[in-house]
Specification:
alpha+beta, Aldehyde Ferredoxin Oxidoreductase,  A, domain 1, 6-stranded mixed beta sheet
Amino acid sequence: MRSEEYRIRALFVDVRSRRTHACEFSPETSREFLGGRGSGTLLLSGRPTLDPLDEEAPLVFSTGALTGSRIPSSARMVISGFSPLTNTVCSSSVGGRLALAMKRSGVDLVCITGRASQPLVLVIDDAGVSFETSTLPLDAPLSRVFALLGTGGGSVAAVGGAAWKGCRYASIMVDGTFSSGRGGLGAVMASKNVQAVKIRGSGAVRTLNREGEEAARRDIIRLFDASPAIMGGLGLKTFGTAALVDLMASRRMMPTANFRRTYFDQYQTFCAGRIREHTSPKHYACPGCPIACKQKAITEIPEFETLSHFGALNENADLDAIIEANRICNEAGMDTITAASSIACLAEIREERYTGPLLVDMVRRTAESSGDGALLKLGSAELARRLGAPEKSMSVKSLELPAYDPRGAYGMALAYGTSTRGGCHLRAYPISHEILRKPVATDRFSFSGKARIIKISEDLNAVIDSIGACKFAFFGASLEEYAKGFAAVTGLDVDQQDLLAKGDTIYTLERHINCMRGFARDDDMLPSRFYTEAGTPGPGIEVPPIERAAYEEALQRYYRIRGCNPDGTISEKRREEIEACRRR
């Protein structure tokens, strides 16, 4: 395979007509948009103003070039579409076996459009594509769906009852426990009358330079082993993401009582040590990942965001209730961050608390769209608007903020505002340097230098999502090692700076799509609470409100660096450059 022959292999499926079309992206386009999130964004840019639930709105499953290679922690893929919760461009990275199954079937990308006349299961395998009429009830627990469809090998992505009942933050679940969670892409899949996608493949995954691949693999494993955040006694390998509970509490940036406070004095009831004592979980991993951050006991152990939001955000100290709330979300297919945030928002508006069995009941009602669930399924922004208290929704662009209070990390505050899919920690993740102090420590209570850092981090994470890697890998390794692996696998003559330039193109295109959908500067602001109310102080720690003028100054610096006009829209020069990339 010569470098100029690297091509993304795409399969377009219209479930209304049941027609399929296979093609390859040009070498220039494949090189520019990489795969994964990049190729999904490219396809969304072709129909930038469609309603998220329009039958012609694309739903894109896309792997990265590293998927199926020996490069560690590279079995992830990205699902992309327009969000019915936020109306933004939306992509969500997910683990499991789905990416590897796609690669082995000879497909890098599947783009689904249309609306089937009745619910179906889309099956892709070595022999081609088939459309199977679903015999499963649409409200069947997803564990039953995976048990029935998961036979015969391969991997399954499915939506649960929440999607069919109109939950705006319905997720797409993969292989039972992996979630493409944020933004409601499960509702998009249900709008196409697709209950599940099953993919089987038995082909080989090619690597051009085996020696280069092995060299990159060894370097990455060496850096993993040296990373306390990954392999240390309190790292991901030992405790999974629950290891962050104690850290966020100690830094006084654990969102509590719908972000009215930043410390929950009963956090130890759901910290990593307590989980180990209470459940004795076992660890498991995505294919080819040595980190094994996922945990399971009798049922799935919640991730950090879920622990914190069903815990502190709702003032709930009942670990069993947190685990059960997470189980219900997984069975119904709902994003746990938005579900927990919507309940906390409703509790503040009503001046009530939902904890223990009451919290579990609210989650169940949301999944069933019964009682208060009819409101909760809309997400906190729409719920608060309908109840006359829009300021109580702790969201940016209608996407609820995760479990890092922005008053405790100013880079995180800016990253929430500039995130293309709304209030999200994974578009930049400045927690790595503001809290974990890697690769270089920065002052978490300062905006100094943060505009440029956030822009570079956004570009980096766009690359990570596009090549098929896991963000946790970058707690140890860097893009330098992964660029070498990418070059070895694809044959492309690229280094980390080349890849970052591609990340800039992808992220700027996402922002441009949002601008065409009506988003601008006002949508990059945080909820007013963070500018007016202090967080919870601790020993030697004060958590003041964010100075609004300082935030706005940092935002303007970010716009200049990103190539935006002062109103947040993309400059004409930058639009022309992005359009030239799209035409390649």
